[in-house]
Amino acid sequence: MKIDKIKITKKDDRGIIYDCDKVGYIFRNKGTISANHIHEEAETLYLVQGEIELTIENETETAKAPIKVHIEKNIYHKLIALTDIVIIRD
Predict the structure, then answer these.
(1) How many structural domains does the chain have?
(2) Please, what is the end-to-end C-alpha distance for the chain in angstroms?
(3) Burial readout 44-72 (b: 16 or more C-beta within 10 A, e: otherwise)
(4) Tens place of pLDDT for every residue, the chain, 90 residues?
(5) Fewest 10 Å CB contacts: which of 1, 33, 43, 48?
(6) pLDDT value at position 21?
(7) Can you give the CATH number for the domain in which 69 is found?
(8) Which domain does 83 fall in, by range?
């Protein structure tokens, strides 16, 4: 049996992103802002815990877990954690 610790990809005052091979396992603290950018590739976010305010292009909505959000490439998006949240990102 082999058990390994999961590597932390990034840790700052917003929370932690764990490296889970092809996906990111992300904890964000209430009130923090994530994303606020554009990617050159599409991404899918799975909000598995908490509530967020999500902006995609010029549309903003509030959403509670569990939800799945697909964001096409080159599309502006921003996420505000309204509670402590957990996201899986691929």
Answers:
(1) 1
(2) 27
(3) ebbbeebbbebbbeeeeeeeeeeeebebe
(4) 887 888 999 999 999 999 888 888 999 999 999 889 999 999 999 999 999 999 999 999 999 999 999 999 999 999 999 999 999 998
(5) 1
(6) 83
(7) 2.60.120.10
(8) 8-89
